[in-house]
DNA sequence: GCTTGTGAATAGGTTCACAGCT
DNA sequence: AGCTGTGAACCTATTCACAAGC
């Protein structure tokens, strides 16, 4: 038994091998951030150990992650910052221009629209949409808020290829469906619901309430070793 | 071989067994959300299958997760919504009152301060702090912005037991250190850096740039089946 | 008959430890 | 001597499949 795990017998494997493990992909973004910092500081070599430290993971983990991209390190020395940064950016698809439309111009949507972090990392916010007539037409950051009724033409005109949903739970699914139908298949949702999408759509979720609840779980576990549950206190 | 995995030979196991798997904890928050919705609709029984559907996971997964809390389902019938909701809330530590201080009143911090989702889920935003003199003293939502120089007394006065960091990368570590020293050990960070904290601190990260980059990776993989790598274009 | 609860099987991820190269 | 690259071991998580109970 113990079959060799090769499953794709027709790819000639000229490229560094597609399909990185998901856990690796998310760590690569962290390494990239560190590398770009080092690049700005003029550092040009880095070890797996120090990359590990600034990403908060183990160094073996870093080396294994990087090995999926190929062998770009030098034994006894480390990795060349500029080269590695380029390779990771390439692997992550950051050589494309990504045009992001944000649907929902409530508190969160507006905050995201003004968030400088996107622009600097190759993500261009090209539209901001809302359903509220009071908000439509307002200037937020560099953008004017469009009517979500115009979603499809706006996506097409701006050639958006990613959408961020910053919407209340109730309307998220229907807007999501329209986004998918309009041909945008990469969606980041901040809505506190599970959205259902076809397999070919990339959907990621960020859920603040969930994060706080997870913290609550751990906090409670530490605070209550067995006694006192809700000390009313003075 | 095949040792039984019992590792805590001194706990009498009166409680439903502490230490849930992390993956289970995050899904429990999703089930809880669904259950509270059903509760509001007056539904009183639910199957693992329909819980699974609304959380976007498999039903065996749901049953295994719930089994860590004990056997609260009825075979052939399902789970009693009110009861299960209560059990999960209990397991997650949501019977406590959680008092959250938000540090950073920029776009994101303000959006979080006004985000209604927190209040309704047992998280009370009790303070909002910033370093910018232009912002200190402003009213945002129900709160007046405090000076981050006053962090320690504010945390103490408001008895905050969680902190949300909505800060730029540069200052996040130093504020984080002060928060920990001040005795708050549950931290949710939106800052795009890896923060280092002692082991006893619960730190979670939400990173929007990372999420978009992960989307970019998947999007690029689908869009480029093998050709054109960086087409210089017009 | 229908749905839970759970051991067994499988898949995925991390850590170890060391050979291989500079 | 130092650091990478990687098989092997280990641990965590998901899925399967079915017996147990209503």
TrEMBL record, chains A, B:
Residue ranges of every copy of the CoA-binding domain listed in the record: 94-194
Domain of life per record: Bacteria
Keywords from the named record: Cytoplasm, DNA-binding, NAD, Repressor, Transcription, Transcription regulation
SUPFAM superfamilies documented for this protein: NAD(P)-binding Rossmann-fold domains, Winged helix' DNA-binding domain
Residues that hold NAD(+) according to the record: 104-109
One Pfam family cited in the UniProt record for this chain: CoA_binding
UniProt subcellular location: Cytoplasm
DNA-binding stretch(es), residue numbering of this chain: 30-69
SMART domains per UniProt: CoA_binding
UniProt family annotation: Belongs to the transcriptional regulatory Rex family.
Protein's job: Modulates transcription in response to changes in cellular NADH/NAD(+) redox state.
Quaternary structure annotation from Swiss-Prot or TrEMBL: Homodimer.
Name by which UniProt lists this protein: Redox-sensing transcriptional repressor Rex
Annotated organism of origin: Arthrobacter silviterrae
């Amino acid at each position: 038994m113990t079959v060799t795990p090769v499953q794709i017998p027709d790819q000639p494997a000229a490229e560094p091998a597609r399909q990185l493990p998901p856990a690796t992909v998310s760590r690569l973004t962290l390494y990239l951030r560190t590398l770009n910092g080092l690049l700005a500081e003029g550092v040009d070599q880095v070890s797996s150990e120090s990359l590990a430290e600034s990403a908060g993971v183990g160094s073996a983990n870093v080396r294994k992650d990087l090995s999926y991209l190929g062998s770009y390190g030098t034994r006894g020395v480390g990795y060349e910052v500029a080269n590695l940064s380029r390779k990771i950016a390439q692997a992550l698809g950051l050589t494309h221009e990504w045009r992001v439309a944000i649907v929902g111009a409530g508190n969160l949507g507006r905050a995201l629209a003004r968030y400088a972090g996107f622009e600097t990392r190759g993500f261009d916010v090209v539209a901001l949409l809302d359903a509220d007539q009071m908000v439509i037409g307002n200037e937020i950051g560099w953008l004017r808020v469009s009517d979500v009724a115009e979603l499809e033409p706006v996506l097409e005109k701006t050639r958006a290829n990613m959408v961020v949903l910053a919407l209340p739970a109730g309307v998220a699914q229907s807007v999501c469906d329209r986004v998918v139908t309009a041909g945008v298949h990469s969606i980041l949702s901040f809505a506190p619901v599970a959205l259902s999408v076809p397999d070919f759509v990339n959907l990621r979720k960020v859920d603040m309430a969930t994060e706080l609840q997870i913290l609550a779980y751990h906090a409670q576990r530490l605070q209550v070793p067995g006694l006192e549950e809700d000390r009313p206190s003075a």
